[in-house]
Write a structure and sequence with these properties.
Distance between the termini: 74 Å
Largest sheet: none
Radius of gyration: 20 Å
Shape: elongated
């Protein structure tokens, strides 16, 4: 039997992952069995196990993919010249969540929320998640520095701005699924209103 090309192997691995995402989106990580994933792929069990030795390996891969939506978003924003405004950044965050939840077969934003919960159970995933968000925080600090240097926020502390932004993204995801979806305009207006308040005790 001829060996599979690297491209074909990656295609099969991706098919297993997207099939698992569909199961995880419907039923969650722990209510989904390995048999469920195998059935969703339409492949034999031996073929699936060539790529993933266990459901935990698939969960890890799904968690990494879902969390990457934040990293990739800010990487693209940092590439833009001139730098996007704060309003454009919030708009892009909301649009990214909309896009990642619009696939007809799976919703990566639901998987991201599950991945945060899984990170509380798995020390290894917790460590990877912490490292991941530390890198994202650095991206957002760079964006905040650009705003400061461009005079958008002359007295801004880039670390504080980055912390506020990294805290905002999980709120958008959780709000979408457990409260109601929020529009970028509504969120921007709320943030602007908060900024105009006096925060003195």
């Amino acid at each position: 039997m001829p060996r599979l090309s690297e491209a074909r192997r990656e295609e099969r691995r991706r098919h297993i992952l997207t099939s698992a995402w569909s199961c995880f989106s419907r039923n969650g990580f722990h209510a989904t069995s390995m048999d469920d994933v195998i059935a969703a792929t339409g492949m034999s069990s031996s073929a699936v196990y060539r790529y993933f030795r266990s459901k935990d390996e698939i969960i890890d891969a799904a968690a990494d993919e879902a969390l990457a939506l934040v990293r990739d978003l800010f990487a693209r924003l940092l590439e833009r010249q001139p730098s996007p405004s704060p309003a454009e950044v919030v708009t892009a965050m909301v649009a990214e969540v909309d896009q990642r939840s619009s696939h007809p077969d799976y919703d990566l934003t639901r998987i991201a929320i599950q991945a945060w919960g899984e990170a509380l159970r798995s020390p290894e995933l917790e460590a990877r998640t912490r490292t991941f968000y530390s890198a994202v925080h650095d991206q957002m600090m760079e964006l905040a520095r650009r705003w400061r240097d461009e005079g958008r926020m002359p007295e801004a502390d880039e670390e504080q701005i980055a912390t506020a932004l990294i805290t905002l993204m999980p709120g958008i995801l959780v709000g979408r699924h457990l409260v109601k979806p929020v529009s970028a305009d509504h969120l921007i207006r709320g943030l602007s209103a908060l900024g105009s308040l006096s925060w003195d005790a």
